Amino acid sequence: MEHTSLLERILRGIALTLVVIFFMFPIVWIFMMSFQTNETILRIPPQLVFEPTLANYTALITGKLTTVSGTLDIAFMRNLWNSVFLSVTSVAVALLLGVPAAYAFARHKFRGSEDIAFTLLSFRFAPALLVLLPLTLYFQKLGLANTYFGLIWVYQLICLPLILWIVRGYFEDIPADIEYAYRIGGHSWFATFRKIALPLAGPGIAAAGLLAFIFAWNNFVFALVLASADKQPVTVGALAFITSSGIQYGQISAAIVLSITPTLALALYAQRYLVEGLSLGAVKG
Amino acid sequence: MTAATVQRVRPSGFRISKRVLPYLLSLPALLVCIGILIPFLTSVVYSFQRYRLSQPWARQFNWGDNYISFFTDPKFWNTLQVSLLYAGITVVLELLLGLAIAMLLQKRSTLNNFISIMLLMPLMTAPALAALMWKLMTNPGFGVLSYLASLIGLQDFRWASSPSTALLTVVLVDIWVYTPFIMILLLAGLRSLPTQPFEAAALDGVPRSFVFFRITLPMLTPYILTATLFRLLDSIQQFDIIYAMTQGGPGDTLTVFQVEAYLNFFQSTNVGRSAALMIILWAITYFLSNIFIKNWLRLRERARGQA
């Protein structure tokens, strides 16, 4: 069907190579930097060949950095743990709240259902600071400032709309007749929900959960505003890293590598669902 | 559960439970909604107040003063200009680049699929961390990009730390992170197009540019619109990349809406002005998202129809 000349194929090849280099180079470069000592990093011109060292990673994991001016304690593992804890718990809570609601929105067109769904959707597009700035003042009064509980609550802003809208689509795809048939057999709505709807929407729920995890993990502004050092996830923690003096560039790189690896790995695993998730169900992958 | 047992004993109970059930199921989500609407309304109130955290005693309603003062405030016009410029440049460039890459990868092959998955990696990197990566690469002392710039004659190219190139640098990071988003949406769109029109055009020997402008683009328009509006809404609110890269600097070169509001709140502790800025940004995004949601719903209906 398509007649492509040799010249065109070469040009396409070159274009694709440039694209791949542009998008992959930063990740590869930071990865390489994370295995270098400060000496090799500071060498000019930059070296492509070097003796790899794990020193940056061991320093991060043990939490002790040796600098010119002595040892420095860093809490990067704490940041990493915070990221894991905040993301996992937020997604779990969002699933608990969002899946039943998604089911209600998909199956029952009740008064105000679309309004609630759209209000939730609009959170996805509202400026985060609009809500966050008053919340900081409220949280201080309520004693929720710098608590996991407060952070997880605010993280619902990211996770809940995502889960609600994606899972709703999956529930809508299940023919209602299957559920009616089961209901007629004398089963309660809850049994129908648990035995029929949930398993059939299972893959969608899993995908929405993974995506919500990625977005929660990658979030920056919520924790920047609401958390202090001991509750901060990696995104905020790494920023504090780069501004504090004495920390070596290789160690910053290693911290970045450790921080982005989980989401990259999950994304590769869930890539089949990414298109649908990123467009909140508007485009099927 | 109780509703279900009642139903079996007394069929009339079923009607009630059926009416209450959806509300019951969505109640938690509804509560979260309300929990968010309260701070939103608080923001509206703040925006009509003279409210500085440093002078809590002087807090009072000044009604529209925060907004009126914007008209004569060069800092506000700078914020508006930078935000629109940033959003405009990033969205246009990402759209062109994303469309080009999607068309390069359109044909299903192992290599193309592999590349398209690889290109997702920047998108899955936290934008704040992506900014840090680029910060390391553009470091004047050892950054590999600074070195490359010096190779092509740009000695002492300052990237994000010079007012003349700061915007360029953050736009570059934005393009790096978000072009894959547009690419992946348009790729899905391209691959879902019916093949007949293209086969017919090929049979008739229609020129490729004609096929592109008269068949591909029109058919792809809903996808392009969705991707554009998604990006536009995010881009005009960009905070992570700019804050992590330059904190709005140098000077006020990059004080886009959210960064300016953040600095107003935490540095000058001017809650009133900060809230007013956010309300204006919200009004812009509300206007845009209304256009967006209509179009997006249509596309969503269609996607569901195909399933």
UniProtKB/TrEMBL annotation, chain A:
The chain crosses the membrane at residues 12-32, 84-106, 118-139, 145-167, 204-229, 249-270. GO terms for cellular component: plasma membrane. Residues 80-270 form the ABC transmembrane type-1 domain. GO terms for biological process: transmembrane transport. Its main location: membrane. It is a multi-pass membrane protein. This is Carbohydrate ABC transporter permease.
TrEMBL record, chain B:
The keyword Transcription regulation does not apply. This is Sugar ABC transporter permease. Pfam families: BPD_transp_1. GO terms for biological process: transmembrane transport. It is found in: Cell membrane. It is a multi-pass membrane protein. The keyword Glycosyltransferase does not apply. Keywords: Membrane, Transmembrane, Transmembrane helix, Transport. The chain crosses the membrane at residues 20-48, 84-105, 117-137, 166-190, 211-233, 275-293. Belongs to the binding-protein-dependent transport system permease family. The lineage of its organism: Bacteria, Pseudomonadati, Pseudomonadota, Alphaproteobacteria, Hyphomicrobiales. GO terms for cellular component: plasma membrane. Residues 80-292 form the ABC transmembrane type-1 domain.
